[in-house]
Amino acid sequence: MKIFILAAGLLACSLTGLTQAADMTDDAPLRTAIAGSHRSSTNVARDTWRHPYETLTFFGIKPAMTVVELLPEGGWYTEILAPYLRQDGKLISAGVISRTLLESKPAVYDKVVRGAFSPPKAIYNFAPANSVDMVLTFRNVHNFVELGDDKVKDMFKALYTSLKPGGVLGVTDHRLPESMPQDATATSGYVHESYVIKMAESVGFKLVGKSEINANPKDKADHKGGVWALPPTLANAALDRDKYQAIGESDRMTLKFVKP
Question: Helix crossing, 193-201 with 149-162: angle to 10°?
Fold first, then answer.
């Protein structure tokens, strides 16, 4: 019996090692997309703070997936996602995105699909139900807090509905320390990690991972004018530019949810 238990334990360890090895497999196409000459130098300079390779691999992205990016606007992540998914996958841009960006390099952005996404108006026509492998939202949830919990839940429900069973929701946002009171409208740009988890779980999502990839312990979330005091906006640059440059970009939560 002891021999059997030992053998079973060794097998379990072996399988765990294989799983870890699989998770650590290098994604060469993603590295290629990140290193692409099509990316703006301004955006590339922010890789140090946004950790695109580590963030996207943590979420489990693969090149054959159908992926929704919420409110890309200037398209910082679109620059990476579009070429990465172009051949075997599909990128759906949900909500506002720069037309200039999409029209600037057709060979990169010609296959990006645009869809409607507007939480204030409850418009979520970005993908059919159960059709998406992954939804990504980067620094957006705080924008919806002022709409109230019910509309925030409606937004998360729309994301949940669009995903296939087993699909992933990846979230990053400016993190407010739990010891600090949450502004009901999140006007500072910061939001409690616990709030994001609560809203996502309230519609059926299961939290399966947290990462400190985008953490910044220098950011205390107490700046005059909120998160926009920090780079790249530097709203208070006239007062103390060096101070905010030394802090760097915001402390951010990185959360991975799954639709069971």
Answer: 60
The answer for 60, left when phi > 0, alpha when psi is -120 to 50, beta otherwise, is left
Cβ atoms within 10 A of the Cβ of 175, count? 23
Peptide bond into 231 cis (omega under 30): no
Judge whether 252 and 214 are in contact, CB under 8 Å: yes
Contact 170, 141 (CB under 8 A): no
- For residue 63, report the phi and psi dihedrals to the nearest 5 degrees: -70, -15
pTM of the shown model:
0.90
Instruction: Give me the amino acid identity at 57.
Output: T
Q: Could you give the angle at the alpha carbon of 150 between the alpha carbons of 149 and 153, nearest 5°?
A: 85
Region class of 132: left (phi > 0), else alpha (psi between -120 and 50), else beta: beta
Q: Are 95 and 124 in contact (CB under 8 A)?
A: no
Structure tokens at 149: 């919990």
- Taking the C-alpha atoms of residue 72 and residue 162, their distance in angstroms, rounded to an integer, is 18
What percent of the chain shows pLDDT beyond 70?
91
* pLDDT tens-digit readout, 48-99: 999 999 999 999 999 999 999 999 999 999 999 999 999 999 999 999 999 9
Residue 216: CB atoms within 10 Å = 17
Q: Are 173 and 196 spatial neighbours (Cβ–Cβ below 8 Å)?
A: yes
- Burial label for 122, CB within 10 Å (0-12, 13-18, 19+), is exposed
